[in-house]
Amino acid sequence: MTSSEELAPDDVIDRMSRSWRELRRGPAAAFVRDQLFGIGTDALEPTQIDVLDLLVQRPDWRMNELAAALRVDPSTVTRTLQRMELAGLAGRSPDRHDGRAITVHITTIGRDCQGMVAARRRAIIGQILTEFDDEDRQRLVVLLERFIAGANEYAGVMSDASLADERVADRPGADELRSMTPGPAATAAG
After folding, report:
1. Are 67 and 106 within one domain?
2. Which residues on neighbouring strands pair with residue 62, listed in sequence order?
3. Would 110 disulfide with which of 34, 49, 89, 121, CB 3.0-4.6 Å?
4. pTM of the full predicted structure?
5. Looking at the structure, do residues 159 and 94 belong to the same domain, yes or no?
6. Do the beta carbons of residue 70 and residue 50 sit within 8 Å?
């Protein structure tokens, strides 16, 4: 498609939906995941790398801070950290200021591992972007960041069901969205 071709709004949405699915589930996704995290019993889990990416940012994190930053349930962080401790990637200890709280820190092995994955990530993305000129790379980054911001805004709007109707009322397609949102009976049924 050339830049002068115009897609119909439904075509844009359909193509974006397919692209999203391909990013998550396509053959490239599995290949890149294996390149980043390894394969077999020594492979890292994506969540472990997410934790390491946070742990390199500061010396100590409380468990609830990690869970909030990762947007997961604290029990997920607990299970992930148990595996990370066994692998020598992270450690937990009592908080220096509040002995009742637990803080998490990265180990030397974890720091080395995070650095290796970050370097791989940069190399892979750099290689993928070689087909783009500088202007397209910058435009892609800006548009992708805007798309993510829009997805986050949408998730924030829809995460509080009691306010969802009020917040989306003025958006295009709000009536259609409300009619597709399952009610309590549908949600309970699965």
Report:
1. yes
2. 103
3. 89
4. 0.73
5. no
6. yes
Reported as half-sphere exposure (CB side, CA atoms, 13 A), residue 54 has a value of 21
Q: Which helix (H) or strand (E) holds 91?
A: strand 90-94
Indicate the angle between helix axes 46-55 and 108-128, nearest 10 degrees. Answer: 110
**Which amino acid is residue 88, in one-letter code?**
G
Q: What pLDDT is stored for residue 97 in this prediction?
A: 84
| Cα-Cα-Cα-Cα dihedral sign, residues 81, 85, 89, 95 | positive
Number of Cβ atoms within 10 Å of the Cβ of 160: 10
Q: What is the largest CA-CA distance in the chain?
A: 63
The answer to whether residues 122 and 142 belong to one domain is: no
Q: What span, in angstroms and rounded, lies between the C-alpha atoms of 73 and 1?
A: 43
Bridge partners of 61, per DSSP, are 104
Between 14-28, 39-53, 150-164, the lowest mean confidence (pLDDT) is in: 150-164
pLDDT tens-digit map of 31-63: 998 988 888 888 899 999 999 999 999 999 999
Q: Are 148 and 73 in the same domain?
A: no
- C-alpha atoms less than 13 angstroms from C-alpha of 190 in its C-beta half-sphere: 0
Same domain, 99 and 170: no
